[in-house]
From TrEMBL:
Transmembrane segments: 26-43, 74-94, 115-136, 247-265
Entry's localization field: Cell membrane
Superkingdom assignment: Bacteria
Organism of provenance: Streptomyces murinus
NCBIfam families to which the protein is assigned, alphabetical: HEQRo_perm_3TM
Domain annotation ABC transmembrane type-1: ranges: 70-265
Protein keywords: Amino-acid transport, Cell membrane, Membrane, Transmembrane, Transmembrane helix, Transport
Protein's recorded name: Polar amino acid transport system permease protein
PROSITE patterns: ABC_TM1
């Protein structure tokens, strides 16, 4: 007689779904542990320490590492961010304009500067512009060049971010502002943009992190000892000492800035998701 007739349930064979998940997770941990152990056993830690972790050489970097290199890196990043934000705002508004040529020009700018490597833009600003316009002088010298170069690099990305933020604001906000007697320009400045910036604050902060790293391209503009940023400073000291410790220390300084900013971005994104829900 069949099991179904007697009421006896057939025994299940194989693993349950929960057991399969646990087995898969355990296998992944085992592979990771094996990779870490293999790396630890095969790496020549003595040579790595001699080349990248010499405390005596690291001490020689201070205080110039902070007072010159890190300070300049922060100044370059902030100035480039301000220029990029201002230019990106203009381009975003042009992109949303009802005037066709404005939209076309903004679209061409965005496609070109998003497609070009940042290094080419730095060379264009540092070499191309002075050759084409010999009488043009950047305000602030090298600092002005860096602000313009980083601003051009970031403006194309910021423009698209700002445009998306403006379009994310409900159209009823503009209609309500116009019904209260606001002009289109005043409604945009007073009503739409504040709400848009609240939406795009996380990606703008993320752009600041990217600019902080892109500031390492300043070395292609030619800088003095007092204008060096972290990468140039670390590279120069590594050449002088014939050791890579300065490069490692400079990299750690980047992490001291970028990791906290990345955490801020994540918190803002999490908060924004909670508000949406």
């Amino acid at each position: 007689m069949a099991d179904t007739d007697t009421g006896i349930q057939p025994k299940r064979t194989g693993l349950t779904r929960t057991q399969k998940r646990k087995l898969s997770r355990g296998a992944q941990y085992a592979v990771l542990a094996a990779a870490v152990i293999a790396f630890a056993l095969t790496a020549d830690w003595g040579r790595l320490q001699n080349q990248f972790a010499q405390p005596g050489i690291a001490k020689q970097l201070f205080p110039d590492l902070i007072t010159v290199a890190l300070k300049n890196t922060v100044l370059y990043t902030l100035s480039g961010f301000v220029v990029g934000l201002a230019l990106g705002m203009v381009i975003a508004l042009m992109r949303l304009s009802s005037v066709g040529p404005y939209r076309w020009l903004a679209g061409i700018y965005i496609e070109i500067f998003r497609g070009l490597p940042a290094l080419l833009i730095f060379i264009f600003v540092g070499v191309g512009v002075p050759l084409a316009f010999p009488t043009v002088q950047y305000p602030g010298g090298t600092y002005g060049k860096v602000a313009v170069a980083l601003g051009l690099v970031s403006a194309a990305y910021m423009a698209e971010t700002i445009r998306a933020g403006i379009q994310a604001v409900p159209k009823g906000q503009m209609e309500a502002a116009r019904s209260l007697g606001f002009s289109p320009a005043r409604a945009m400045v007073s009503i739409i943009l504040p709400q848009a910036f609240r939406i795009i604050l996380p990606p703008l902060t993320n752009e600041l992190v990217l600019l902080f790293k892109d500031s390492s391209l300043v070395l292609f503009l030619g800088v003095t000892l007092e204008q060096r940023e972290l990468s140039k400073f670390g590279n120069d000291l590594a050449s002088q000492t014939a050791n890579s410790t300065p490069i490692l220390v400079a990299g750690l300084c980047y992490l001291l800035i970028t990791i906290p900013l990345s955490l801020v971005v994540r918190r803002m994104e999490t908060k924004a998701l909670r508000e949406i829900r």
